[in-house]
Amino acid sequence: AFDVADLAAHEAALTKIEAELGPLTTLVNNAGVGVLKRGDLLDVTEESWDRCLTVNAKAMFFLSQVFARRLLARERSPLFHSIVNVTSSNSVAVALQRSEYCASKAAASMVSKALAVRLGRENVAVYDVQPGLIATEMTAPVIDSYRERAEQGLTLFPRVGEPEEVGAVIASLASGRLPYTTGQTISADAGMLVPRF
């Protein structure tokens, strides 16, 4: 564990991890923070804006950069290599009470695309996983309202998702179970973003 917002710690953290596990094949950018206070976007503070953008977009960009440089600097095994970024359905759908969070996740989603374009020629796949209503520590204060909205039809499956389900999606991507793919957005949202009438 380390603070991804501390950019100077990235190199040392990856060195420590590789010393314990061996050469890494995959980076999963899953660290994220929510807003300091839900409310009107006209009341968003600079502190909340900076916190969301720093952790959710800036840190994942620079950690991905450090990981990619390390990966490309060494002789790689024939194993599958990838970066999986966990953004959010809010990278495309506005949640007005959390506008700075949405902006940070939209930025992270674009970073995923940029990384996919840059690393494709290096045979490194990059994915953007966009969870919807998932029962996590971050959603705990509002999970009951999420459950109610899911049951009322916000999601096509009438329930909230579990972290293990998102984990299974990430594991599939990280292990190359979707061969000949890169740059894709995977909506782990029970169909929440499917356009409907």
Spell out the blueprint of helices and strands.
Blueprint: H1 10-21, E1 26-29, H2 46-73, E2 81-86, H3 99-119, E3 124-131, H4 143-151, H5 163-174, E4 185-188
Parallel strand pairs: 1-2, 2-3, 3-4
Helix pairs in contact: 2-3
General description of the model:
The chain has 197 residues and is an alpha/beta fold. It contains five helices and four strands, in the order αβαβαβααβ. The protein has a single domain (7-188), classed as Rossmann fold, CATH 3.40.50. The protein has helices spanning 10-21, 46-73, 99-119, 143-151, 163-174; strands at 26-29, 81-86, 124-131, 185-188. A four-stranded parallel sheet has the order 1-2-3-4, with helices on both faces. Helix 2 links the parallel strand 1 (26-29) and strand 2. The chain starts with 9 loop residues before the first helix and ends in a 9-residue tail after the last strand. The model has no long low-confidence stretch (mean pLDDT 96).
